[in-house]
Amino acid sequence: MSKIGVFICHCGENISATVDCKKVAQEAANIEGVEFATDYKYMCSDPGQTMIKEAIKEKGLTGVVIGACSPRMHEPTFRKACAEAGLNPYMCEMSNLREHCSWVHDKSDTTTEKAIDLVKMLVAKTKLDKPLNAIKVPITKKALVIGGGIAGIQASLDIANAGKQVILIEREPSIGGHMSQLSETFPTLDCSQCILTPRMVEVAQHPNITLYNYAELESLDGSIGNFKATIRLKAKSVDPKTCTGCGICWSKCPKKKIPSEFNAGLGMRTAIYTPFPQAVPNKPVIDKANCNYYLNGKCKVCEKVCPTGAIAFDKPDELITEDIGAIVLATGFDVLKPDFFPEYGYGKYPDVITGLQFERLASASGPTLGEIRRPSDGKIPQKVVFIACAGSRDPAKGIPYCSKICCMYTAKHAMLYQHKVHEGESYVFYMDIRAGGKNYEEFVRRAIEDDGANYIRGRVARVYEKDGKLIVRGVDTLMGAKPVEIEADMVVLASAGVSNCGAEELAQKMHVSYDPYKFFAEAHPKLKPVETNTAGIYLCGACQAPKDIPDTVSTASGAAAKVIGLFSNDELTREPIIAVVNRIPSHDVSTCVGCFMCETACPYQAIEHEEIKNRQGEVIKTVARVNPGLCQGCGTCVSFCRSKSIDIQGFSNEQMYAEVMAVLAD
Amino acid sequence: MNNEFEPKIVAFVCNWCTYAGADLTGTSRIKYASNVKIVRFPCTGRIDFMLLLKAFANGSDGIIVSGCHPNDCHYTSGNFHARRRWILFRSLLDFMGIDVNRIRFAWVSAAEGAKWADIVNDTVSTIREMGPYTEYRKAASFLAENEVELAKEMEVPQ
Amino acid sequence: MEKQGYITTIKGKTGVNVNRCYQCGKCSAGCAVAEDMDYPPSMVMRMLQTNDEDNYQSVLKSESIWLCVSCQNCLTRCPMQIDIPSLMDYMREKSLEQNSVNKKSKNILSFHRAFLDSVRYTGRLYEIGLVAGYKVRSLKLLQDMNVAPGMFMKGKLPILPEVVKDKKQISNIFSKTGEVHSGPK
Amino acid sequence: MEIGFYPGCSLKGTSSEYAQSTLALAKAFDINLVEIEDWNCCGATAAHNINHELATALPARILALAEKQGLTEIVVPCAACYNRLTVAQHEINKNPELKARVAEILQMPIEGKVQILNVMQFILKYISDKITDKVTKPFEHKVVCYYGCLLVRPHDILQFDRLEDPQSMDDLMRKIGATSMDWGYKTECCGAGFSVSRTDIVAKLSGRIVKDASDRGAEAIIVACPMCQSNLDMRRPHINSYLQTKIETPVLYITQAIGLAVGLDRDTLGLKKLFVAPSFA
Ligand SMILES: Cc1cc2nc3c(=O)[nH]c(=O)nc-3n(C[C@H](O)[C@H](O)[C@H](O)COP(=O)(O)OP(=O)(O)OC[C@H]3O[C@@H](n4cnc5c(N)ncnc54)[C@H](O)[C@@H]3O)c2cc1C
Ligand SMILES: Cc1cc2nc3c(=O)[nH]c(=O)nc-3n(C[C@H](O)[C@H](O)[C@H](O)COP(=O)(O)OP(=O)(O)OC[C@H]3O[C@@H](n4cnc5c(N)ncnc54)[C@H](O)[C@@H]3O)c2cc1C
Ligand code: SF4
Ligand code: SF4
Ligand code: SF4
Ligand code: SF4
Ligand code: SF4
Ligand code: SF4
Ligand code: SF4
Ligand code: SF4
């Protein structure tokens, strides 16, 4: 039999001005199961709390209902007080007499009656409360960072500098990501490699960071604090421990005509290669798809010339498993590839290039050593047309969003071009100039006012080639929408930023949600921008949406801060408001029929399959089990379960039913 | 005035949006009719429609179900589940002889205090016009007899 | 037509929501006849977006709607997939209906009319008849005198029209779709 | 083998050589094209410019006649007719009300199930595979392929070839030994139905096309539409006076070019009916 204590608060006059608090307490005392009821001016004050604690001890209360303000305000206060008096904190509930009653109704008998009803409802619920214990989960203080672009680099360094262990995996032979490909960066025009390389080196040398290059996540199990990550270390065909990075192998490799990914196809590389001279780690891998030995069993030149005997053709992929407490996703983005722009002739005319290719042309480390020369004949283009929003903001091409970075980098490109080719002319076709950011608008204005980039508002309909010129047919919408034709030497497409290949697959492996464009989804766009909906997995950088470097680095540090915050505790404490699958009457039996409707309902993949075995160890049936680390307590599963086998602690079927019935009972 | 019918209305709301929104109505001191009593759920996804049927079967004249706006669900998708099942639920109500106008499905965010007051007032006056729900005993026995079948009916194929 | 309604009417009749156009100009950039138009297609879109009766009337009276050759370049490339060709069709029908066909475009309309008259009477296009009909309507009596003899010589202009047997059905089609004979103007 | 054939008005008049060469080519590959009996004009640009319902009803009659005649597949060489027929059938099929209304206007049932092939689709489906064996006189000329605006549009309805930079005609030309060049005007408009009413515009639009072809050294422009052909060919005097040059690049139908390659003679293919005479045949 329950012994409930009811405490009605006046909140000064906030409640008592319209509700007859004395009467509410008196009526409450008459409710079945109520042992004690009283009212007081300020329940949350020290004397008020003392009053509750004493009553618990003196009357041996098994539950407490506070009729006061919103539980969103003071539930923690009162639960703490109860715990101090030895009552399980989850046996304490609040009835909202202030926000939901006294403040929204006029003084009258009906208002007092409503208050009484509200108390009755919570008494009914509290009677069915069960003692619960906060869930404690131990934490493995080691983070996994996936993706070694500037986002992953920054997050790794921040976490490592806080004294925590980091494993960084990068699927390419080197870390650095897109930033390593850039020439100079807006809005300050500092050299990308100059600011990035020191950080890459720091990653490689940091005692708290283990870097696995040429590696990918194979699978992931477990939950926040205790993930188990299986990582595939792709065979490099070169033993990194013996290799000194001397470079003899790639200077002798006969396969020299492989388009270099790093140079966005504008340069060539060998089959054994490092993507670029400053690569980290600076040891080569063999690209099996292009190596003569793997293709037809002949060659092995590299093996012959290698002074240290580092070539290891037959070494297979390796799988390793790591215990991980938290994960940072930093897999970045990609730019839209050919065939999306048949009207612009991309892929058909060599001098129609993407912005990323332009970066390589403008970069001192690029195929032209920083001179702007067009790919077809190496001539310096005298007229360059830049086309903004190429693919972006184009629902017809399936990309309705704005890629955010291209307005800025197009201004940068026009500027760099004008700096390098003084007598040249640059034209930018744009729809809007989106330059929101510190010093961004000023940057664009400089391109227009000081460097003389010709901005034309309008889209380009098509580009075709004639007599070695690219005829660009666009429009100037600010001049009565009359067509404009420019005979250009080179056309640069500000092609849309899109999600990285493999992003969807990775998200599914990790149970992270993603948007229709396969960018990973944050838990809340404003208030949880670096969290995912899966506890313990954070994200940063351009894997979330196209982002520039300042935004990428801020989110990376944000994600790192979340990880460090998590790792600052030894254990994780969580509210026990989670679902459970009933195992009554005896542990062996469950009414669960194994339909797994709950599994389809759960937004957090918290439902697991559990086999029930008999004494002989044979499987009798498979039932649902809730992973308490993943369950967030939404209760969606409960309303899906037909056999009412799954229920949620603190909001059980029985309790909710009792609460509703208490309203209707007269 | 005193003789006017005062309907009993139960509001099933989620903790994160509408409950907080109703708190804001209070903080802003916006007045509304006192007929509605709020039951707090973690999420609209938790709101089992059998529970709503039981509320009707036990004499509720009207019901409000309210949670986060689409895409704003604290738990990502609970409200989508609720919305999908709502379609089935309407036909079920119809089948049981309950006018669908007795139930109001709404979205009220934590910032929409005034909207909550409007919804309550609006629902109260609608139900007041419709008069008391008198066939509830019939509904109760119907529910008692067919509970399992009804539960099956509410199952949503994915 | 009342001021508030034409955007909605256009949407209902053609499926085109003029407010979807974000004025990128790609249609005008690729339109074959934009430079001959008084309002290039993206301007037509903008004028309709204003929901302003004067602008609506200007479009109805424009040369643009008659110059549009339905080549579909605009629709093909429009990022918002706005069906300008259908919109142009609709505007032409409206313009005809309220008798505000652009003066400079009367010839184009005359040609369409003459063409349809030929079809109405023979079920097929009778090219000599067409040219004759057009000349009467447009008063361009000397046009194409230099081409026609060549066509005769090359056997490209049959002297007598080919005629559909079921002429009744053809004239039914015309009367039921409301395409009444307009006579030479 | 027998397939339905809708010539349309142009092929009976100004473009009789297109009909001639299509029929001859089909025959060379043992295909008999059967004309739809008592067909009418599709209404072309005129109808669709000023009366939407008429623009649907006229093509619908043609389709209904084909059905009545038991034809499941019809070849429509004129790109404009092809476009009108395909669009009309599409609209009828997606809108049952319209279908009923059209049946009422025609006083004839209409199913909307006839397969409509343009000349390219016809060649690709029935001839293309056998061409290489049949080529006796490779068409060794530098050409540009002009698709015009109607052959591939509206793409979501026609679903034929690539929307921008189509390739099917180029591929066919290469098959018969031609050098098909990239150029700038594959799908730009020639002025279409303005041939008579706005000859000035046709001269300008077609002029650009012809000039680009000639600048690139094309020996012929290959087309698959009578309207394109007559604008580029018959209007050449206007074009030349607009351009103030004398361009003599001939404009051949694809059926004529293939016909020549498989050894059909000039007359059968109606080559002498071209205004700008080809120098090579
Ligand atoms: C043309 C162009 C010019 C630009 N110019 C500027 C500029 O001037 N200023 C500026 O601020 N920003 C600029 N940017 C934006 C800048 O490139 C990005 O902000 C930045 O690169 C984002 O960093 P990231 O680490 O999030 O992603 P990325 O640089 O894309 O790095 C992601 C990394 O993750 C790795 N990876 C991907 N998937 C996996 C996987 N499954 N497993 C393991 N590893 C994986 C990738 O190999 C890569 O190394 C420009 C962008 C472009 C396209
Ligand atoms: C009209 C308007 C509409 C907006 N709408 C949106 C929107 O819809 N969505 C959106 O995402 N963003 C919106 N924003 C932006 C949003 O308001 C800001 O992003 C956000 O408020 C920034 O938060 P903050 O904490 O940095 O600064 P603030 O909100 O300015 O907070 C700074 C705090 O510091 C205190 N303070 C200042 N100086 C001192 C001092 N010396 N010592 C102690 N305390 C100090 C101030 O009193 C203040 O409380 C809007 C902004 C405006 C103006
Ligand atoms: S408990 Fe709540 S209602 Fe009571 S005095 Fe404190 S704030 Fe006011
Ligand atoms: S030659 Fe040998 S040591 Fe030198 S870089 Fe190549 S693999 Fe390494
Ligand atoms: S074996 Fe392969 S990687 Fe080595 S030198 Fe030969 S081609 Fe290059
Ligand atoms: S950032 Fe600029 S160029 Fe890029 S999609 Fe947005 S508006 Fe277009
Ligand atoms: S829905 Fe219920 S019965 Fe079905 S698996 Fe889940 S807990 Fe078991
Ligand atoms: S309560 Fe929510 S999160 Fe927990 S298992 Fe059920 S559906 Fe999943
Ligand atoms: S292309 Fe489309 S969106 Fe752009 S201006 Fe034209 S109609 Fe508008
Ligand atoms: S369909 Fe009309 S408006 Fe569109 S591009 Fe062609 S001529 Fe211009």
TrEMBL record, chain A:
Necessary cofactors: FAD
Pfam families: FAD_oxidored, Fer4_7
UniProt keyword annotations, A-Z: 4Fe-4S, FAD, Flavoprotein, Iron, Iron-sulfur, Metal-binding, Oxidoreductase
SUPFAM superfamilies recorded: 4Fe-4S ferredoxins (SSF54862), FAD/NAD(P)-binding domain (SSF51905)
GO molecular function term, any single one: 4 iron, 4 sulfur cluster binding
Database matches in PROSITE patterns: 4FE4S_FER_1 (PS00198), 4FE4S_FER_2 (PS51379)
Keyword DNA-binding: no
4Fe-4S ferredoxin-type domain location: 234-263, 282-316, 583-612, 622-651
InterPro entries listed in its UniProt record: 4Fe4S_Fe-S-bd, 4Fe4S_Fe_S_CS, FAD/NAD-bd_sf, HdrA-like
Domain of life: Bacteria
PANTHER family: COB--COM HETERODISULFIDE REDUCTASE IRON-SULFUR SUBUNIT A, FERREDOXIN:COB-COM HETERODISULFIDE REDUCTASE SUBUNIT A
Family note: Belongs to the HdrA family.
Protein name per the record: Heterodisulfide reductase subunit A
Species assigned in the record: Dysgonomonas macrotermitis
TrEMBL record, chain B:
Coiled coil regions in record: none
Key word Transferase present: no
A Gene Ontology molecular function term of the record: metal ion binding
Domain F420-non-reducing hydrogenase iron-sulfur subunit D: 9-131
Keyword Membrane: no
InterPro entries: MvhD/FlpD (IPR003813)
Keywords for the protein's UniProt record, in alphabetical order: Iron, Iron-sulfur, Metal-binding, Oxidoreductase
Highest taxon above the source species: Bacteria
Protein known as: Coenzyme F420-reducing hydrogenase, delta subunit
Native source species: Dysgonomonas macrotermitis
Automatic annotation (TrEMBL), chain C:
Record's GO cellular component terms: plasma membrane
InterPro entries associated with the record: 4Fe4S_Fe-S-bd (IPR017896), 4Fe4S_Fe_S_CS (IPR017900), HdrC_iron-sulfur_subunit (IPR051460), Helical_ferredxn (IPR009051)
Gene3D superfamilies attached to this UniProt entry: Alpha-helical ferredoxin
Species, as recorded: Dysgonomonas macrotermitis
Chain ranges of the 4Fe-4S ferredoxin-type domain: 12-42
Gene Ontology terms for molecular function: 4 iron, 4 sulfur cluster binding; metal ion binding; oxidoreductase activity
Organism superkingdom: Bacteria
UniProt KW keywords: 4Fe-4S, Iron, Iron-sulfur, Metal-binding, Oxidoreductase
Name of this chain's protein: Heterodisulfide reductase subunit C
PANTHER family for the chain: IRON-SULFUR-BINDING OXIDOREDUCTASE FADF-RELATED, IRON-SULFUR-BINDING OXIDOREDUCTASE FADF-RELATED-RELATED
Pfam family, one: Fer4_8
UniProtKB/TrEMBL annotation, chain D:
Origin superkingdom: Bacteria
Domain Cysteine-rich stretches: 4-85, 143-233
Keywords noted in UniProt: Oxidoreductase
Gene Ontology molecular function: any one: oxidoreductase activity
UniProt key word Oxidoreductase: yes
Entries under Gene3D superfamilies matching the protein: 1.20.1050.140, 3.40.50.11810
Keyword Oxidoreductase: yes
PANTHER family recorded: COB--COM HETERODISULFIDE REDUCTASE SUBUNIT B 1 (PTHR42947:SF1)
Protein name per its UniProtKB record: Heterodisulfide reductase subunit B
Biological classification of the source: Bacteria, Pseudomonadati, Bacteroidota, Bacteroidia, Bacteroidales
